[in-house]
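Each lists chain and fold; for instance:
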Amino acid sequence: MNPKYHDVYLEKAKALVAQMTIEEKTSQLCSDAPAIDRLGIPSYHWWNEGLHGVARAGTATVFPQAIGLAATFDPDSLHKVGEITAKEARIKYNAARKSGDRSIYKGLTLWSPNINIYRDPRWGRGHETYGEDPVLTGICAENYIKGVQGGEDERYMKAAACAKHFAAHSGPEGIRHGFNSEVSDFDLHDTYLPAFEWCIKKADVEGLMGAYNTINGVHCCANEPYMEGVLRQKWGFKGYYVSDCGALADMHMFCLVTHTAVESAALALKSGCDLNCGQVYLHVLQAYKEGRVTEAEIDRAVTRIMATRFKLGMFDPDCVYDKETDITLVDGPEQRRVNYEIAGKSLVLLKNDGLLPLDKSKLRTVGVIGPNAASIRALEGNYNGTSSRYSTVLEGIQRVCGDEVRVLYAAGCPLYKETAESCAFPRDGFSEAVAVAEASDVVVLCMGLDSSIEGEQGDANNEYGAGDKATLAFPGLQQELMEKLRELNKPTVLVVLAGGALDLNWASRETNAILYGWYPGAEGGNAIADTLFGLLNPSGRTPVTFYRSLEDIPAFEDYHMERRTYRYMDVPALYPFGFGLSYTQFSHSEPQMSGSAEDGSLKALVRVKNTGARLGEDTVAVYATYGKERYKTPNCKLCGFARVSLEPGEEKTVEIAVAPEALMLTDQDGSRYLPENEVRFYTGDGSIREKYNQQT
């Protein structure tokens, strides 16, 4: 939608709200909004999800989980995901509306993306995010949002994105409803807020969602200085602000910033929370009667949310998107093709001693072993739809091998339990796995997690509780099984399906190759199999740091960024942020800088050459290091990136824009500024290193 229409719809919303009674106005403030028939306003349920495809609404394209999308380091892929998600949401919305179904998960307000920073690998919801870096998060979110909210008609949004959860919300899950994030001004503005500013200024995101927690004692859904002052007045946010689901009840039940539901409703509304996912705003009318809120404050909230509905064309009989009715386009052949391509780009090759790619002509048998080999859930992640067609890793390998190579399979062990059958003894699958490995020329281990034990509180349950991870170890008997099979000394590839970095210390020493698949979506098995056998060349990059030990980072509850992520860690990583191998090799020139950061024209020109023997895609990432500054500077800082595809021997110049926001540093008081002293640029990954390929 063209931003010029914002004021038009705001005025229409004001005119509509002016016709409502106070009872009608307050009725619209909860996510399940009833109809107002006399004004032609149909009922509407605001809650819908689209993290990596339309979620919880039946069949949809299930893309790689958000962390896998970030691993592509490819803005175009994020834009495509947004476009397809919005199109499928429209088709589903129109079909549901035609049948009179206006229930939850059928609307056009997608409460995605999750742009919280994946600051700690123990966080169960980390796989919903775009990783640990604010710039990567901002760029991914910007392109996803533009894909969702764009379209053929500049007058309307095809769907509305909502950036969440504002702010400083990255676990622990088990105590999130009453948790107080103690955050310095420096860390808040250096790490936790920049992606939100990016989404507002560069993508004009329509919605923002407030988190459950408090920040330094102030609730995220009642923080007027930030909700009205920073978001709206300073950054120019023009959309609606919604509470996380149940967050307003937390204010009086767990956070204890208020005493009653009426007090919570009044405080949140006055602070700028327009919409309540939950039931607390049913008390707004009582708060009004008690003089706790004014009608003008109620009008402000209702006008904002009605303006969003106008932007979506809900009150316009000739909205072009009402014609999106072709259900055959949902998870259709073209969508699956795009999904496969993106899944391939998301895979990260962490280790390869030369075993990969596998040569089918030299193999008689391949042993596929592990609890995630035939798992659909390990493809999906959370906040997911249901694909009409899945490809597990086992099925993908069977497809590639065909009749020429025998594929043997054994689960070996459950994901986290000790037995696969209720009456069996522990390790009941070990003997079969050993027999399969003994009969195989190469072993593909498919290990990791899935959303049943890694995810959001209430959705995921594990032995640690609430979806977080107490350790980064492979759960259950997986590590023991891997060590048992390694005793056979078979060529071994480890394929990990998980939402974040697990402990790979043993695997990095003992296996021949490691391919990290994240939760790769419905086409993940095909993409993984084609990568193992060289039909695809891996090109993904790590959006998070793989630490050597949890002892290298602070306690989970500590929100200070010291020693966290590649920017502030003080020990070497096992695999650094931005790392990823290929089946070919690339050389980079020193980045040649042109333009100015002050006027936003700064660019890096990098000459890239494919020096290997295979076609491949390379992610050219530009990092900055800084001289002595006023307060605290990172080890290095991602400033921009671009992907390039090159034939063997081919050479191209890649142009990478460096946004001023990506280059900025943060002062002790939280103010942001462009560096005053020497800045050096280099290409590579987020390693802590003494020497860089750099140019001042």
Summary: DSSP finds 21 helices and 24 strands in the chain. The CA atoms of residues 78 and 494 lie 27 Å apart. The radius of gyration is 25 Å. The longest strand covers residues 616-626.
